[in-house]
Amino acid sequence: MNNENDNAEMYDQEQEGRLRDSFAKLDERLGISTQTPEYLKQSFATKLKAATTKKSIFATWKGLWGAILASFSIGLLVARFALMPATVATRGAGPEAIGDLPDTSAKVISITTGNPEEFAFKVISLALSAEMEVTSQKSGERIVLYIKPFKQGLAEQQPIKELLGLQLEAVGSVSAVITKGSKK
Questions:
Q1: What pLDDT, in 10s, does the model give residues 36-73?
Q2: Residue 35 CB partners (closer than 8 Å, separation 6+)
Q3: Helical spans, DSSP H, in 33-56
Q4: Which pairing describes strands 142-150 and 133-139: parallel, antiparallel, or unpaired?
Q5: ∠ Cα 69 51 45 (to 5°)
Q6: C-alpha–C-alpha distance, residues 84 and 87, integer Å
Q7: Based on the domain organization, do 74 and 125 belong to the same domain?
Q8: Residues of the chain whose pLDDT is less than 50?
Q9: Is 97 part of any domain?
């Protein structure tokens, strides 16, 4: 602006016309009309009123706790299913596991009966009442019982030895393979 002539026009009439045309085209491209300023004022007033309205602190805390609970639950699901440990458990035969290994010197007997489950139940019941260790394994219609320790001269073990067909002097461990078939 020129200080010498403050009242002088900044643009001549031709330049002013071009500016008005370009502003009118810009308003048209932006979709601004003569009703727009009133609409904007009303929209701004509505938004300002909504922004300044106080919300209940309970509603705010309720939303916060809901968000925390939801994120915690999703985190648990991710940890449970997506981050499952990929480990394989193996059983070693070190000094601490020697007692768990089957005795290779165990006597193996084969028994054929009409109902293997009932026979195995009788054997297990008698062995447990005589305070012996019994391990059972079922594969199809075959049941394998690993019984230990048989000792000589114990009266509690006599019924088990008779049921399995062992001699009364038998000692050590026994693996009994019980299969289904006609009774001997």
A1: 667 776 776 787 677 776 666 556 777 778 888 888 88
A2: none
A3: 36-52
A4: antiparallel
A5: 155
A6: 9
A7: no
A8: 1-2, 97-101, 103, 184
A9: no
